[in-house]
Write a structure and sequence with these properties.
Blueprint: H1 2-30, H2 38-56, H3 59-83, H4 88-107, H5 132-137, H6 141-159, H7 161-171, H8 173-178, H9 183-209, H10 221-231, H11 236-258, H12 265-285
Helix pairs in contact: 1-6, 1-9, 1-10, 1-11, 2-3, 2-4, 2-9, 2-10, 3-4, 3-9, 6-7, 6-11, 10-11, 10-12, 11-12
Amino acid sequence: MELVEAIILSVLAASTPLLIAATGELVTERSGVLNLGVEGMMIVGAACGFGGAWLTGSILIGALFGIIAGMLMSLIFALMALGLAVNQVATGLALTILGVGLSGLIGAGFVGERITPAIHLHIPGLTDIPLLGRVLFGEDAFVYFSIALIIGVWWFLYRTRAGLILRACGDNHVSAHALGYPVLRIRTLAVMFGGACAGLAGAYLPLAYTPFFIPGMTAGRGWIALALVVFASWRPGRLVVGAYLFGAVTILQLHAQGWGVGIPSQFMSALPYLATVIVLVLLSRARTGGSTAPAALGTVFVPDR
């Protein structure tokens, strides 16, 4: 019972940054913008988030620093890809490279430092329930926020007029522009939201997952978040399933090494990314259900003057 509870708690912790980052990228891509710079925004958010928490002693301020850092990085992408109509794929890759180098510069003075991680909820009587108590009533605020975030995004996309307009910009930006909607402004806001989520997801790692910062601590989670959006077919509900599935793969390979499974540790470490590739291949071959990818995803839009 205790082992099962420990595994579930570990899966929740490993899945939270994937869910937050993928939720932001889903909104970005729903607007028609393909931002491959999630990894770069996450690692900068991790460095700034840890720095803010270490300097002030506040996890909340650290999280805000991570959000702001991610938004500022996303504005660089928006300026290039939306303002100057530069190729979105190339811009996103450049943003990732910039983020990796910038995070090393920002976090160089914080390597080796430690902070007190985010506190976990504790409700007397409820948190002590076997198995489900700590899972439902003993997590940190980031975990609960990730669930609220995906529910809010689902409601926004499918139950509000603003969400319908955003999806219209992603499906046919020419028609949306003809109807008088500011396509570039909407896409810029969507990119900023995605950057804020990526920065928060990165900040979660040193603020709650591990109480210290090391260069490259995102370890490819930004790329997995991008794959999750495709895995979910750009639907928020499926995104939750995908995030926890990939989080489970990550944690189970760690436990498998601890159990002495006779498989090389290098292969086990590569298992989450191998699973990502396999899932994407299977989805590309599947024909049931169809794809709900925005029709104008990655397409440069220059409004008529």
